[in-house]
Design a protein that fits this description.
8 strands
């Protein structure tokens, strides 16, 4: 698929812009489901992304789950790059839903084997989870950004938030969706419809970029160009 054929589509407050970070390691935040999906292609995509992150010496920050796509991604990358390459951030209330054998009384820092899943940080709420994940990306080196694998409501909500923050000028990191077996085709069409209907400016149509394989995900992050229509707002503390 050529760049001309490629479909390009039209992120956290209170996070200051990074200082010179050219010597820092890139950090990618991956949003994805705590389910595995009905097609084996989704788990395969998570494994492929982990192998590609390892090959490019990229660290992962993610939602801290040990099941579904989240668990597959984290386990695979730790097995390749070591525990220091993965940081999971999970709200206490979600432990019983997103971690195998977890319960609301479980201390994830003690129950999750760091040698298998990497570092885990337990937070009190969703806002803190998302803010810390975004902060890791914003402070990362060149090629850092946000990636959406397949997932449900939560994945879509997280993806839309970082797109919005990009549009508002809160960050300038790449936002890429890994479109497995056409999973995000409907979202691509929605963005096109929103542009034609006048709800997304044509100059912001390229904030979200599609990738069809893991290597393309990393390449799009490294080559990401900010959209012309982004708002030039000042989010510094007055």
């Amino acid at each position: 698929m050529t760049s001309q054929d490629k479909r390009s589509l039209p992120v956290l407050s209170e996070v200051p812009p990074p200082e010179n970070n050219t010597s820092k390691k890139p950090v990618v935040c991956v949003f994805c489901g705590s389910s595995s999906g009905t097609s084996p292609a989704h788990l395969a995509a998570a494994r492929s992304l982990a192998h590609t992150l390892h090959a490019h010496n990229i660290s992962l920050v993610y939602g801290g789950g040990t099941i579904g796509l989240m668990g597959e991604l984290a386990r695979t990358l730790v097995s390749l790059s070591g525990a220091q390459a993965v940081h999971g951030i999970i709200p206490d209330a979600l432990i019983k839903y997103e971690q195998e054998g977890g319960s609301s009384n479980t201390d994830a820092r003690n129950s999750i084997d760091e040698k298998i899943y990497g570092k885990t940080t337990v937070v009190h709420d969703m806002h803190t989870r998302k803010q810390l994940m975004a902060k890791s990306v914003i402070e990362g080196g060149p090629g850092s950004g946000f990636v959406a694998l397949s997932g449900g409501y939560g994945t879509l909500e997280e993806l839309m938030e970082v797109i919005t923050w990009n549009q508002l000028g809160i960050h300038n990191k790449g936002v890429v969706m890994f479109n497995v077996e056409g999973y995000y085709d409907g979202l691509i069409e929605w963005v096109k419809t929103a542009v034609s209907a006048g709800f997304i400016a044509p100059g912001n149509a390229g904030i979200l970029v599609e990738a069809l394989d893991a290597e393309e995900v990393v390449r799009e992050l490294k080559e990401y160009t900010v959209a012309e229509g982004r708002y030039k707002l000042d989010w510094s503390q007055k």
